[in-house]
Automatic annotation (TrEMBL):
Protein name, entry field: AhpC/TSA family protein
Organism: Prevotella communis
GO MF annotation list: antioxidant activity; oxidoreductase activity
InterPro entries xrefs: AhpC/TSA, DUF4369, Thioredoxin-like_sf, Thioredoxin_domain
Gene3D superfamilies assigned: Glutaredoxin
One Pfam family from the record: AhpC-TSA
Residue span(s) of domain Thioredoxin: 255-392
Length: 392
Protein backbone atom coordinates (compact mmCIF):
# COMPACT_ATOMS: atom_id res chain seq x y z
CA UNK A 1 0.00 0.00 0.00
CA UNK A 2 2.83 2.39 0.94
CA UNK A 3 4.56 1.66 -2.37
CA UNK A 4 1.39 2.61 -4.26
CA UNK A 5 1.15 5.88 -2.35
CA UNK A 6 4.79 6.72 -3.12
CA UNK A 7 4.27 5.96 -6.82
CA UNK A 8 1.11 8.07 -6.88
CA UNK A 9 2.92 10.99 -5.23
CA UNK A 10 5.76 10.73 -7.78
CA UNK A 11 3.27 10.73 -10.64
CA UNK A 12 1.68 13.90 -9.26
CA UNK A 13 5.00 15.54 -8.37
CA UNK A 14 7.17 14.90 -11.45
CA UNK A 15 5.02 16.87 -13.95
CA UNK A 16 5.24 19.90 -11.68
CA UNK A 17 9.03 19.60 -11.66
CA UNK A 18 9.25 19.09 -15.43
CA UNK A 19 6.80 21.83 -16.39
CA UNK A 20 7.20 24.34 -13.56
CA UNK A 21 8.97 26.76 -15.92
CA UNK A 22 6.66 26.24 -18.89
CA UNK A 23 4.64 29.12 -20.34
CA UNK A 24 1.68 29.14 -22.67
CA UNK A 25 0.79 32.33 -24.52
CA UNK A 26 -2.47 32.94 -26.32
CA UNK A 27 -2.44 35.92 -28.64
CA UNK A 28 -5.53 37.81 -29.77
CA UNK A 29 -4.95 40.31 -32.58
CA UNK A 30 -7.62 42.70 -33.72
CA UNK A 31 -7.92 44.24 -37.21
CA UNK A 32 -5.52 41.82 -38.92
CA UNK A 33 -6.21 39.73 -42.05
CA UNK A 34 -7.68 36.26 -41.59
CA UNK A 35 -4.24 34.80 -42.25
CA UNK A 36 -1.33 36.75 -40.78
CA UNK A 37 2.18 36.13 -39.45
CA UNK A 38 4.05 37.57 -36.48
CA UNK A 39 7.47 37.11 -34.89
CA UNK A 40 7.89 36.63 -31.15
CA UNK A 41 11.19 36.66 -29.30
CA UNK A 42 12.05 36.29 -25.64
CA UNK A 43 15.14 36.11 -23.45
CA UNK A 44 16.15 33.12 -21.34
CA UNK A 45 19.10 32.30 -19.11
CA UNK A 46 21.11 29.25 -20.15
CA UNK A 47 24.24 28.24 -18.22
CA UNK A 48 24.38 31.66 -16.62
CA UNK A 49 24.20 33.56 -19.92
CA UNK A 50 21.35 35.36 -21.64
CA UNK A 51 20.09 33.91 -24.89
CA UNK A 52 17.33 35.17 -27.19
CA UNK A 53 14.82 32.65 -28.51
CA UNK A 54 13.11 33.78 -31.73
CA UNK A 55 10.02 32.25 -33.32
CA UNK A 56 9.66 33.54 -36.88
CA UNK A 57 6.45 33.47 -38.93
CA UNK A 58 3.99 32.38 -36.26
CA UNK A 59 0.68 31.79 -38.02
CA UNK A 60 -2.25 33.94 -36.91
CA UNK A 61 -5.61 32.53 -37.93
CA UNK A 62 -8.84 34.43 -37.34
CA UNK A 63 -6.91 36.84 -35.14
CA UNK A 64 -5.46 34.18 -32.82
CA UNK A 65 -2.08 32.49 -32.31
CA UNK A 66 -0.46 30.39 -29.61
CA UNK A 67 3.09 29.92 -28.39
CA UNK A 68 4.63 27.81 -25.64
CA UNK A 69 8.11 27.47 -24.22
CA UNK A 70 10.13 27.65 -21.03
CA UNK A 71 11.38 30.55 -18.93
CA UNK A 72 12.75 30.36 -15.39
CA UNK A 73 11.04 33.52 -14.18
CA UNK A 74 9.86 36.90 -15.43
CA UNK A 75 11.49 37.56 -18.79
CA UNK A 76 11.44 40.26 -21.46
CA UNK A 77 9.68 39.41 -24.72
CA UNK A 78 8.70 41.22 -27.90
CA UNK A 79 6.26 40.75 -30.76
CA UNK A 80 6.77 42.24 -34.23
CA UNK A 81 3.55 43.44 -35.84
CA UNK A 82 3.24 45.70 -38.86
CA UNK A 83 6.97 46.62 -38.69
CA UNK A 84 6.64 47.56 -35.02
CA UNK A 85 8.40 45.77 -32.18
CA UNK A 86 6.25 45.74 -29.03
CA UNK A 87 7.76 44.81 -25.68
CA UNK A 88 5.93 42.66 -23.13
CA UNK A 89 6.71 40.00 -20.52
CA UNK A 90 6.56 36.23 -20.11
CA UNK A 91 6.35 34.11 -16.98
CA UNK A 92 5.95 30.36 -16.32
CA UNK A 93 2.16 30.57 -16.55
CA UNK A 94 -0.78 30.67 -18.94
CA UNK A 95 -1.00 34.17 -20.41
CA UNK A 96 -3.13 36.10 -22.85
CA UNK A 97 -1.98 39.03 -24.97
CA UNK A 98 -4.54 41.34 -26.65
CA UNK A 99 -3.36 43.76 -29.35
CA UNK A 100 -5.34 45.99 -31.70
CA UNK A 101 -3.09 46.56 -34.70
CA UNK A 102 -4.59 50.06 -35.07
CA UNK A 103 -3.58 50.92 -31.50
CA UNK A 104 -0.69 48.53 -30.77
CA UNK A 105 0.72 50.42 -27.79
CA UNK A 106 -2.55 49.95 -25.92
CA UNK A 107 -2.01 46.20 -25.67
CA UNK A 108 -3.21 44.20 -22.67
CA UNK A 109 -1.43 41.31 -20.92
CA UNK A 110 -3.11 38.95 -18.44
CA UNK A 111 -2.03 35.85 -16.56
CA UNK A 112 1.24 37.12 -15.07
CA UNK A 113 2.20 38.54 -11.69
CA UNK A 114 3.03 41.85 -13.41
CA UNK A 115 -0.32 42.44 -15.16
CA UNK A 116 -1.06 45.54 -13.10
CA UNK A 117 2.50 46.85 -13.42
CA UNK A 118 2.46 46.39 -17.18
CA UNK A 119 -0.88 48.13 -17.59
CA UNK A 120 0.36 51.04 -15.48
CA UNK A 121 3.35 51.26 -17.81
CA UNK A 122 1.11 51.05 -20.90
CA UNK A 123 -1.22 53.79 -19.67
CA UNK A 124 1.81 56.01 -18.97
CA UNK A 125 3.78 55.41 -22.15
CA UNK A 126 1.43 54.30 -24.94
CA UNK A 127 0.97 57.82 -26.30
CA UNK A 128 4.70 58.56 -26.06
CA UNK A 129 5.65 55.31 -27.85
CA UNK A 130 3.03 55.87 -30.54
CA UNK A 131 4.28 59.40 -31.23
CA UNK A 132 7.91 58.28 -31.39
CA UNK A 133 7.04 55.53 -33.86
CA UNK A 134 5.15 57.99 -36.06
CA UNK A 135 8.11 60.40 -36.07
CA UNK A 136 10.43 57.57 -36.99
CA UNK A 137 8.20 56.39 -39.83
CA UNK A 138 8.03 59.89 -41.31
CA UNK A 139 11.81 60.11 -41.14
CA UNK A 140 12.23 56.74 -42.85
CA UNK A 141 9.70 57.59 -45.58
CA UNK A 142 11.55 60.86 -46.19
CA UNK A 143 14.90 59.08 -46.33
CA UNK A 144 13.71 56.67 -48.99
CA UNK A 145 12.07 59.33 -51.17
CA UNK A 146 14.76 61.99 -50.83
CA UNK A 147 17.83 62.37 -52.98
CA UNK A 148 19.84 62.80 -49.79
CA UNK A 149 20.98 60.01 -47.50
CA UNK A 150 19.89 60.21 -43.88
CA UNK A 151 20.93 57.95 -41.03
CA UNK A 152 17.39 57.13 -39.92
CA UNK A 153 18.38 54.80 -37.03
CA UNK A 154 20.16 57.86 -35.68
CA UNK A 155 16.94 59.85 -35.91
CA UNK A 156 15.03 57.17 -34.05
CA UNK A 157 17.74 57.12 -31.40
CA UNK A 158 17.47 60.88 -31.03
CA UNK A 159 13.69 60.79 -30.76
CA UNK A 160 13.81 58.10 -28.07
CA UNK A 161 16.10 60.22 -25.91
CA UNK A 162 13.02 62.16 -24.87
CA UNK A 163 11.69 58.90 -23.41
CA UNK A 164 14.73 58.21 -21.24
CA UNK A 165 13.88 60.69 -18.48
CA UNK A 166 10.29 59.44 -18.42
CA UNK A 167 11.50 55.87 -17.87
CA UNK A 168 13.75 56.99 -15.02
CA UNK A 169 10.92 58.96 -13.40
CA UNK A 170 8.57 55.97 -13.71
CA UNK A 171 11.06 53.59 -12.06
CA UNK A 172 11.83 56.11 -9.35
CA UNK A 173 8.11 56.23 -8.57
CA UNK A 174 7.71 52.43 -8.74
CA UNK A 175 11.01 50.94 -7.50
CA UNK A 176 9.26 47.79 -6.24
CA UNK A 177 7.91 46.88 -9.70
CA UNK A 178 9.26 43.60 -11.03
CA UNK A 179 9.50 45.18 -14.49
CA UNK A 180 11.59 48.11 -13.21
CA UNK A 181 14.97 46.51 -14.12
CA UNK A 182 13.81 45.99 -17.70
CA UNK A 183 12.58 49.58 -17.96
CA UNK A 184 15.97 50.78 -16.72
CA UNK A 185 17.57 48.54 -19.34
CA UNK A 186 15.46 50.38 -21.93
CA UNK A 187 16.82 53.67 -20.60
CA UNK A 188 20.35 52.32 -20.81
CA UNK A 189 19.79 51.17 -24.41
CA UNK A 190 18.71 54.71 -25.29
CA UNK A 191 21.76 56.06 -23.48
CA UNK A 192 24.03 53.90 -25.62
CA UNK A 193 23.31 55.87 -28.79
CA UNK A 194 24.69 59.24 -29.83
CA UNK A 195 23.98 60.85 -33.20
CA UNK A 196 24.95 64.04 -34.98
CA UNK A 197 21.84 64.87 -37.02
CA UNK A 198 18.18 64.08 -37.50
CA UNK A 199 15.21 64.87 -39.74
CA UNK A 200 12.84 67.50 -38.29
CA UNK A 201 10.02 66.89 -40.80
CA UNK A 202 11.45 69.19 -43.45
CA UNK A 203 15.21 68.89 -43.49
CA UNK A 204 18.22 67.34 -41.78
CA UNK A 205 19.36 69.46 -38.86
CA UNK A 206 22.21 69.30 -36.36
CA UNK A 207 21.31 67.40 -33.21
CA UNK A 208 21.99 68.77 -29.73
CA UNK A 209 25.32 67.45 -28.51
CA UNK A 210 24.79 64.39 -26.32
CA UNK A 211 27.62 62.24 -25.06
CA UNK A 212 27.35 58.47 -25.20
CA UNK A 213 26.40 57.01 -21.80
CA UNK A 214 25.65 60.48 -20.47
CA UNK A 215 22.76 59.10 -18.39
CA UNK A 216 24.60 56.33 -16.51
CA UNK A 217 24.87 58.42 -13.34
CA UNK A 218 21.11 59.09 -13.32
CA UNK A 219 20.36 55.43 -14.03
CA UNK A 220 22.59 54.34 -11.15
CA UNK A 221 20.78 56.69 -8.78
CA UNK A 222 17.48 54.97 -9.59
CA UNK A 223 19.04 51.51 -9.34
CA UNK A 224 20.09 52.29 -5.75
CA UNK A 225 16.41 52.76 -4.90
CA UNK A 226 15.46 49.27 -6.07
CA UNK A 227 14.92 46.76 -3.23
CA UNK A 228 17.12 43.65 -3.04
CA UNK A 229 14.29 41.33 -4.03
CA UNK A 230 14.12 43.19 -7.36
CA UNK A 231 17.86 43.40 -8.11
CA UNK A 232 18.31 39.72 -7.18
CA UNK A 233 15.96 38.57 -9.97
CA UNK A 234 17.29 37.53 -13.38
CA UNK A 235 16.27 40.89 -14.84
CA UNK A 236 17.85 42.70 -11.90
CA UNK A 237 21.14 40.84 -12.32
CA UNK A 238 21.05 41.52 -16.05
CA UNK A 239 20.61 45.23 -15.37
CA UNK A 240 23.54 45.38 -12.92
CA UNK A 241 25.78 43.41 -15.29
CA UNK A 242 25.05 45.62 -18.26
CA UNK A 243 25.38 48.87 -16.38
CA UNK A 244 28.81 47.64 -15.32
CA UNK A 245 29.69 46.91 -18.96
CA UNK A 246 28.39 50.33 -20.03
CA UNK A 247 30.53 52.08 -17.41
CA UNK A 248 33.64 50.20 -18.54
CA UNK A 249 33.01 51.01 -22.21
CA UNK A 250 32.28 54.61 -21.30
CA UNK A 251 35.70 54.89 -19.68
CA UNK A 252 37.36 53.42 -22.79
CA UNK A 253 35.56 55.89 -25.03
CA UNK A 254 36.99 58.81 -23.11
CA UNK A 255 40.18 58.07 -25.02
CA UNK A 256 41.40 61.25 -26.70
CA UNK A 257 44.22 62.26 -29.00
CA UNK A 258 47.48 61.79 -27.14
CA UNK A 259 46.20 59.04 -24.85
CA UNK A 260 47.03 55.35 -25.15
CA UNK A 261 44.90 53.51 -27.70
CA UNK A 262 42.73 50.72 -26.26
CA UNK A 263 44.35 47.36 -27.02
CA UNK A 264 42.46 44.64 -28.86
CA UNK A 265 43.19 41.31 -30.50
CA UNK A 266 41.40 40.02 -33.60
CA UNK A 267 41.48 37.45 -36.37
CA UNK A 268 41.91 38.68 -39.94
CA UNK A 269 40.25 37.47 -43.13
CA UNK A 270 43.30 35.26 -43.76
CA UNK A 271 42.96 33.59 -40.37
CA UNK A 272 45.91 35.36 -38.72
CA UNK A 273 45.64 36.58 -35.13
CA UNK A 274 46.75 40.18 -34.58
CA UNK A 275 47.08 42.52 -31.62
CA UNK A 276 47.86 46.20 -31.93
CA UNK A 277 50.02 45.84 -28.82
CA UNK A 278 52.47 43.84 -30.94
CA UNK A 279 53.07 46.84 -33.20
CA UNK A 280 54.13 49.14 -30.37
CA UNK A 281 57.64 50.59 -30.89
CA UNK A 282 57.63 49.04 -34.37
CA UNK A 283 54.82 50.40 -36.55
CA UNK A 284 52.17 53.06 -36.89
CA UNK A 285 48.64 51.61 -37.02
CA UNK A 286 45.85 53.09 -39.14
CA UNK A 287 42.40 51.84 -38.10
CA UNK A 288 39.68 52.19 -40.73
CA UNK A 289 36.14 51.72 -39.39
CA UNK A 290 33.58 51.31 -42.19
CA UNK A 291 29.88 50.56 -42.49
CA UNK A 292 28.93 48.16 -45.30
CA UNK A 293 31.16 49.31 -48.16
CA UNK A 294 34.91 49.92 -48.28
CA UNK A 295 35.51 53.38 -49.69
CA UNK A 296 38.29 54.00 -52.21
CA UNK A 297 37.12 57.37 -53.48
CA UNK A 298 39.73 60.02 -54.32
CA UNK A 299 38.62 62.02 -51.29
CA UNK A 300 39.02 59.06 -48.94
CA UNK A 301 42.52 58.49 -50.32
CA UNK A 302 43.29 62.19 -49.83
CA UNK A 303 42.20 61.96 -46.18
CA UNK A 304 44.49 58.97 -45.60
CA UNK A 305 47.35 60.73 -47.36
CA UNK A 306 47.00 63.81 -45.15
CA UNK A 307 46.86 61.70 -41.98
CA UNK A 308 49.93 59.64 -42.86
CA UNK A 309 52.12 62.20 -44.62
CA UNK A 310 55.79 62.03 -43.70
CA UNK A 311 55.33 58.39 -42.59
CA UNK A 312 56.92 55.80 -44.88
CA UNK A 313 54.33 53.35 -46.18
CA UNK A 314 56.41 50.42 -44.90
CA UNK A 315 56.04 51.77 -41.34
CA UNK A 316 52.22 51.68 -41.37
CA UNK A 317 49.95 48.73 -40.64
CA UNK A 318 46.47 49.33 -42.03
CA UNK A 319 43.55 47.51 -40.39
CA UNK A 320 40.02 47.70 -41.77
CA UNK A 321 37.20 46.95 -39.32
CA UNK A 322 33.62 46.36 -40.49
CA UNK A 323 30.86 47.87 -38.35
CA UNK A 324 27.58 46.98 -40.10
CA UNK A 325 28.08 43.63 -41.84
CA UNK A 326 29.54 40.23 -41.02
CA UNK A 327 29.70 36.66 -42.32
CA UNK A 328 29.52 36.02 -46.05
CA UNK A 329 28.49 39.60 -46.79
CA UNK A 330 31.64 40.89 -45.08
CA UNK A 331 33.88 38.34 -46.79
CA UNK A 332 32.51 39.21 -50.23
CA UNK A 333 33.26 42.87 -49.61
CA UNK A 334 36.84 42.45 -48.32
CA UNK A 335 37.70 39.91 -51.05
CA UNK A 336 37.32 42.71 -53.60
CA UNK A 337 40.46 44.35 -52.20
CA UNK A 338 44.10 43.38 -51.99
CA UNK A 339 46.47 43.06 -49.08
CA UNK A 340 46.88 46.77 -48.36
CA UNK A 341 44.64 46.29 -45.31
CA UNK A 342 44.36 43.56 -42.71
CA UNK A 343 40.60 42.98 -42.71
CA UNK A 344 38.88 42.32 -39.39
CA UNK A 345 35.27 41.15 -39.02
CA UNK A 346 33.16 42.34 -36.10
CA UNK A 347 30.27 40.12 -34.96
CA UNK A 348 26.84 41.63 -35.53
CA UNK A 349 24.08 41.19 -32.93
CA UNK A 350 20.58 42.46 -32.23
CA UNK A 351 21.72 42.82 -28.63
CA UNK A 352 23.41 46.19 -28.26
CA UNK A 353 25.24 45.03 -25.16
CA UNK A 354 26.78 42.11 -27.02
CA UNK A 355 28.00 44.61 -29.61
CA UNK A 356 29.67 46.69 -26.93
CA UNK A 357 31.25 43.63 -25.33
CA UNK A 358 32.54 42.11 -28.57
CA UNK A 359 33.12 44.97 -30.96
CA UNK A 360 36.39 46.82 -31.33
CA UNK A 361 34.57 49.96 -32.41
CA UNK A 362 32.98 50.26 -28.95
CA UNK A 363 36.44 51.01 -27.51
CA UNK A 364 37.10 54.09 -29.62
CA UNK A 365 35.61 57.61 -29.39
CA UNK A 366 33.66 58.16 -32.61
CA UNK A 367 30.01 58.21 -33.60
CA UNK A 368 29.86 58.31 -37.41
CA UNK A 369 31.26 56.21 -40.26
CA UNK A 370 33.60 55.89 -41.96
CA UNK A 371 36.30 56.94 -39.48
CA UNK A 372 40.10 56.73 -39.57
CA UNK A 373 42.22 56.59 -36.39
CA UNK A 374 46.02 56.81 -36.53
CA UNK A 375 48.02 55.26 -33.68
CA UNK A 376 51.71 56.20 -33.36
CA UNK A 377 54.59 53.87 -32.60
CA UNK A 378 54.25 54.55 -28.86
CA UNK A 379 50.71 53.20 -28.96
CA UNK A 380 49.09 56.63 -28.58
CA UNK A 381 46.25 58.03 -30.69
CA UNK A 382 47.83 60.56 -33.03
CA UNK A 383 44.76 61.72 -34.98
CA UNK A 384 41.10 60.95 -35.65
CA UNK A 385 39.22 61.80 -38.83
CA UNK A 386 35.55 61.01 -38.25
CA UNK A 387 32.64 60.65 -40.65
CA UNK A 388 34.67 60.86 -43.86
CA UNK A 389 32.28 61.70 -46.69
CA UNK A 390 32.34 59.98 -50.07
CA UNK A 391 33.36 63.24 -51.63
CA UNK A 392 34.04 66.83 -50.65
Amino acid sequence: MKERIVILLLVLWLPNICFSNRFELQGHLKNVPDTYYVTVGYDVVENGKWKRIIHDSILVENGMFSLSGQVDELSTAYIEINKQRLRFYLEPSKMTLHIDIHAPYNMQLTGTTVDEEFQTYISTFHECDSNLTEKFRKAVDWEYTSEYSVDYPGMYSLYTHEKEDKLLAFCKKHPDYKIAPDLLLQALEIDMDSWDSYYDGNKVVKAPKRELFSGITKINKVIRKLPAEITNTNLGKKLLERVSIAKAVSECRKTIIGSMAPVFTAVTSTGDSISIANYRDKKYVLLYFWADKISETPYAKEVISNMTKDIPSRDIVRISISCNIDGDEWRQEVNKYGTEYLHVEQPMSTDLYQLFVKQISSLYPFGTLPTYILIDKKGKIASITEGVAEEK
